[in-house]
Design goal:
seven-stranded mixed sheet; alpha/beta; Aspartate Aminotransferase, domain 1; Aspartate Aminotransferase, domain 2; three-stranded antiparallel sheet; binds pyridoxal-5'-phosphate; 15 strands; single chain; 2 domains; PyrdxlP-dep_Trfase; 11 helices; globular; 357 residues
């Protein structure tokens, strides 16, 4: 069986070496030595000045909305994983959708201003598939209307835009280290921001609001990464170059061999150094997608319909129509993409797709 992704597992001895440190320290969570080491290593690897590791990629979004959302209307993208929209509703804010760009698939920055009302407090946009939003235009709009910017950068591990980590953009940016993402800690995630005040609020928010054992800055939740999760991260991180190399090879194979007279791929924004995190293809019709999906499934190959349905159609999303997002969501699929996907399997996948188009 070939799935859309396959989690990279480091050599078990290397994971066990990290676990031995935990046994020696007899310390399993509450920002122990391994979490702190992972944060230091990630800062260096990603070239960011701050990072707060958390227990998944959803909690940092919730915390960002708690810190910046102020129960207001949040301008957001309908084309993302469901967590982007669910967290807005979960944090008692209101999602206000703005349709996406048909080629970049990120929020269409030219349509944002029309959606702003006196209740708007923030923009929450996703760098979907690791493709950067138009960060300059969004920053200018936010400045003009005094809005905060949150980026769901769950797909953006290692992506740079104009030579700068994509995590450095926006007031707060978040990442996921879920097992399906290119760098993982099993479950895990992180929050990035360059503002000292937001950093402090985010930090205490992920640890019950603690200032010390007996003092509290304010309200908080438990968003801490455990030492066991950090052990996985410390074991995976040294393999990032191999992971990226393997993925780059797969992407190059698809680029070279798929029949693009009948398919489209997404357009990467200029000045982006990408991370090969997903391989989405867009069919002419949903029927064409379903036909290819069926053929692949019959050969035990399971691409995923990332991202379907368009998030404006969820039952808690209101009834805003998003024609471009709805159309793309119905026609897009992500192909298997992972480090060790071999040439025999790639050949079969491409053959089944091209033959059934
Ligand atoms: C994976 C993902 C999340 C959620 O991350 P978890 O670590 O699974 O909580 C949020 N947003 C997007 C776009 C994602 O792909």
């Amino acid at each position: 069986m070939i799935n859309v992704t396959k989690t990279f597992l480091p050599p078990i001895e290397e994971y066990q070496q990290q676990l031995q440190r935990i046994w020696k320290n007899e310390w399993l969570t509450n920002r122990g030595a391994l979490v702190q080491e992972l944060e230091a290593n990630l800062k260096q690897y990603l070239n960011v000045s701050t990072i707060i590791c958390m227990n998944n990629g959803t909690i940092p979004l919730q915390i960002a909305l708690k810190v910046l959302g102020n129960n207001g209307e949040i301008i957001t993208t309908p084309f993302s994983y469901v967590a982007s929209t669910a967290t807005i509703a979960w944090e008692h804010c209101t999602p206000v959708f703005v349709d996406i760009h048909p080629e970049y698939l990120t929020i269409d920055e030219t349509k944002i201003e029309a959606a702003i009302t006196p209740k708007t407090t923030a923009i929450l946009a996703t760098h979907v598939f690791g493709n950067p939003c138009h960060v300059e235009a969004i920053e200018a709009i936010a400045k003009k209307h005094q809005l905060k910017v949150i980026y769901d950068a769950a797909h953006c591990f290692g992506v740079t835009y104009k030579g700068n980590s994509l995590f450095n953009y926006g007031d707060i940016s978040t990442c996921s280290f879920h097992a399906t993402k290119i760098f993982h800690t099993g479950e895990g995630g992180a929050l990035f921001c360059n503002d000292k005040n937001y950093e402090l609020q985010s930090f205490y928010s992920h640890n019950f609001g603690h200032k010390s054992a007996t003092e509290f800055y304010g309200m908080g939740i438990n968003g801490k990464l455990s030492e066991l999760q950090a052990a996985m991260g410390l074991s995976v991180l040294p393999y990032m170059h191999k992971i990226l190399k393997g993925r780059k090879r797969v992407v190059a194979y698809y680029n070279k061999n798929l029949d693009f007279s009948k398919l489209e791929k997404i357009k990467l924004r200029a000045d982006t150094s990408w991370n090969y995190s997903y391989y989405p293809i867009i069919f002419k019709t949903e029927a064409a997608l379903l036909k290819v999906q069926k053929a692949l499934n019959e050969s035990q190959i399971f691409p995923r319909r990332y991202f379907y349905p368009s998030l404006n159609t969820l039952n808690y999303s209101g009834k805003q129509k998003m024609p471009i997002s709805e159309s793309i969501a119905a026609r897009i699929v992500c192909l298997p993409l992972f480090k060790n996907l071999n040439e025999t399997d790639l050949k079969l996948i491409v053959k089944l797709i091209n033959k059934n188009l």
